[in-house]
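Review form for a predicted model. The reviewer records the input and the model, then writes brief findings.
Reviewer: anonymous (R2)
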Amino acid sequence: MDVQAAILQRRSTRGFDDTPLTDEEIRTLIDAALASPSVLNIQPWHFAFVTDKAAMDEMDVLLRELYTHEFGEKSEKRHFYNAPLFVAITVKSREKNRYTHIECGIAVENLALSAMGLGLGSVIMHTPSIGFASEKGAYFKEKMGIPADNEFIIGIVIGHSAEHPEAHSIRENRYTIV
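Model under review:
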């Protein structure tokens, strides 16, 4: 699949089947993440490739509890959507700068497009930030292989799609040519 096709065909997948990713697929995704550009090639990130379903399920329970506490209504939403892989993109808190979120955003898009090229689905997510910022954050960092002094910026779940969502309509008048 060429890059333009991957960009135009990529969708947020919120349902995955139980097929695990192969070591080769994970290695391809790691290579895509590490190839991401950064200002002055600082590469501020740490990528945690989490295949531990029990860890994701446990954080899912916490996220539902936090949602219920925050909004006063019970949530049954599965935030990791049964995906076999969660990639947490984090940076050392002391190394954050004004470009960090942009750089991590580029890295997560590299992962999404690489997944698409492998025939996999993905959804980019920020919700785990609530769990990592909670009193159980240190526990989940350790469980998911994230350095203790790192801050979660953005994540993505990746797997074999159990659904094939239609594209959202593209809004016109969102660009200018001068």
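Findings: The mean pLDDT is 92.
Further findings: Helices lie at 3-9, 23-34, 53-71, 100-117, 128-132, 137-143.
Recommendation: see findings above.
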